[in-house]
Amino acid sequence: MLLSHLGKHPRIDPAATVASTATVCGDVAVGPGCRILHGATVVAGGGRIVLGRECIVMENAVIRATGRHNCTVGDHCLIGPCAHVVGCTVEDEVFIATGAAIFHGARIGRRSQVRIHGVVHLRTALPPGTTVPIGWVAVGDPAAILPPDQHERIWAIQEPLDFPATVYGVTRGEAAMVEITRRLSRELAGHGDDESV
Question: What is the C-alpha to C-alpha distance for residues 32 and 16, in angstroms, rounded to an integer?
Fold first, then answer.
């Protein structure tokens, strides 16, 4: 399904295919030879998404851009089933495995791999050729790659990256979730006006 959002509509190269049960919404450019498979969701909610040449977006993967963070995926990348990629830059020939999560402002260097359920946190920079092992967390710039049982070490790097301010423009505090959900509610209300194209 192709949808316009905020007056912008997807641009799909004639040599690309989008499955009938996939959703591509808003300011999205899909390059030649791309394949967006069943259940995948590619939504530019105020920002822009660019998928390069011959990118494969597997079943139920999510690629998102926001008004604060565009998303670019280079040539010859594979985004695995149920992966979540939002507001980041993925360079050429990157493999993002099943269930992996890449967050706002992250940069994944060429020929890197984020393996099953790996996480690349916001504003994290992975140098070219880096591997994030199964279930591990990459955080910081330059990235520290840590096992998930090292929460205190991960948090020591992650906390100053300030997820609420970076992603939502909200100061961390007592009422943060109230303000975050109010802002998101306003922003996402625009999807009520999306139209098939």
Answer: 5
CATH code, domain with 53:
2.160.10.10
Q: What is the pTM of this model?
A: 0.93
Nearest CA to 104 among 57, 30, 43, 162? 162
- 31 and 13 in contact (C-beta within 8 Å)? yes
Q: In this predicted model, what pLDDT tens digit does every residue of 33-90 receive, in sequence order?
A: 999 999 999 999 989 999 999 999 999 999 999 999 999 999 999 999 999 999 999 9
Please tell me the total count of domains within the chain: 1
Domain range for residue 176? 2-196
| Residue whose pair of structure tokens reads 């030649």 in the numeric block | 32
Considering only CA atoms, which of 15, 18, 17 is closest in space to residue 40? 18
Query: What is the CB-side half-sphere exposure of residue 141 using CA atoms within 13 A?
Result: 12
- Does residue 96 contact residue 83 with C-beta atoms inside 8 Å? yes
Compute the distance between CA of residue 149 and CA of residue 122 in angstroms, rounded to an integer.
19
- Residue 40 sits at the vertex; the CA angle it makes with 189 and 109, to the nearest 5 degrees, is 100
Residue that is written with structure tokens 């004639």 in the block: 14
Do residues 170 and 187 touch, judged by C-beta distance below 8 A? no
**Helix, strand or coil, per DSSP, at residue 149:** coil
User: Per the structure block, which two tokens stand in for 179?
Assistant: 């303000």
